[in-house]
Amino acid sequence: MIVDQALKDATAELAATAGFVGELGMQRLRVHGQNRVFRVDVGGATLLLKRYFPGTGERRDRLRAEFSFSRFAWSQGVRVIPEPIAADYTRHMALFAFVEGTRAAAAPVTAAAIAAAVAFIAHINRDRAGLSARALPLAFGGLFSIAEHIAAIGSRLIELRERAEGLHLDSFACELIDARLRPAWASVAAALGDCPDPPAAERCLSPSDFGFHNAIIDAAGQLVFHDFEYAGWDDPARIVAELFAQPQVPIARQLFMPFAQGIGAALGLSQGFAERAARLLPLYRVYNCCALLTEILPADGSAAKRKRRRENKDARWAAVQKAIADLHEHESR
To answer: Which of 74, 103, 179, 269 has the fewest C-beta atoms under 10 angstroms from its C-beta?
Structure first.
C-alpha cells in the first residue's frame, strides 16, 4: 500500500529528532483500533510508527498516555516493552523500536507466561511511590471502589442498550442485553455488596487492557507487551479480572489464583486481594460482552471502517455467543 508522502516527511522529521537519518522506507502493517501502524526503516534501524486518531468526543490523549507510560517503564529498566523513541504530539504520532516476533495470542497461555506477566506488573510498580510514577495519569476509567466498578459497567450497559435501540438493530441484540447482560450485572452487583474497597495505598500502575492479546513472542522466546494507550493508576484487582475476562485469548481457570496471588505478593497487597479480584471477574465478563457487542454495531466514520465491521460481523457474533456462554458457565457454578 502506498504511503502518503506527507506522512513520510513527518516520519523522517520525527526520526531525525532521535538521530535516525537517511533514506526512509515505510510499510503499512495494519489498522489497530482507530490507529494506523507502519514499519519504518531508516538510518540502519527498524522502527514502528503508530499514528493515533482521536475518536469523536475522545476525552483521553492516548498518545501521551502510552508514550509517557512507556518512557517511565523504560526508565525503570523494563525491557519487555518496545523502546519508546520519539513522539510528535501535534501530529499525533510516535516511534517505537520494532519488535520482530509472533503474536502471543497464537500460543496457549502457560504458567511461565503467567509468571512473566506477574514480573512485568511487579517491575513497573517497583518505584510506584516515586515522583515520576506519581506524575502519570489515572488509567482510562480508573476505578478505586467496588461501587465505581459496578457503576461504570452499569453505565456501559445503558449506553449500549440506547445505541442498539437507536440504530434499529434486529431485536436479538436488544433482547440479549435485556435478558442476559442486565440481569447478570444486577446479580453480580448484589453479590459484591459486602466486598471491601481496596485501600488507597494499594493503587498501582496498570498497563490497562492488559493481556496476551497485546503481546508478542520475540526471537528469543521472550514475551514483549505493548499497547498502553489507557495505562495509568488503577485498582490492581482490575488488572487480574480484565486479564481473565477478555475473550481474545482464553486462559485456563486454574491459572487465575497463581496470577492473582502472584500480583498480591509482588505488590505487597492485603491478604484478601486475590479473593476480591475473583469476585470482580464476573463483572468484567459482563463488561467484555458489552465490548464485543459494541464491535458489531454499525460504525460511523469512513467507508473502509464500515466495510471492516461488515466483514467481521459473523466472527464478532460468534465471539459474543462464546462470551455469553462463559458468563452463563460462571453463573451456574
So the answer is: 179
Cα-trace Rg, the chain? 20
Residues 113 and 220 in one domain: yes
Provide the residue range defining the domain that includes 235. 102-332
Q: What whole-number distance in Å separates Cα of residue 164 and Cα of residue 167?
A: 5
Based on the domain organization, do 294 and 147 belong to the same domain? yes
What phi, psi does 152 have (nearest 5°)? -65, -40
Of the listed ranges 68-72, 183-187, 198-202, 307-311, the one predicted with least confidence: 307-311
CA distance 260 to 267: 11
> How far are the Cα atoms of 20, 30, 99, 229, 291 from residue 40, in angstroms, in the given order?
11, 13, 12, 21, 32
What integer pLDDT is reported at residue 141 of this predicted model?
82
pLDDT of residue 292: 79
Does the pLDDT value for residue 53 go beyond 50? yes
Percent share of the chain, pLDDT over 90: 65
Same domain, 163 and 59: no
Distance CA 102, CA 219 (A): 8
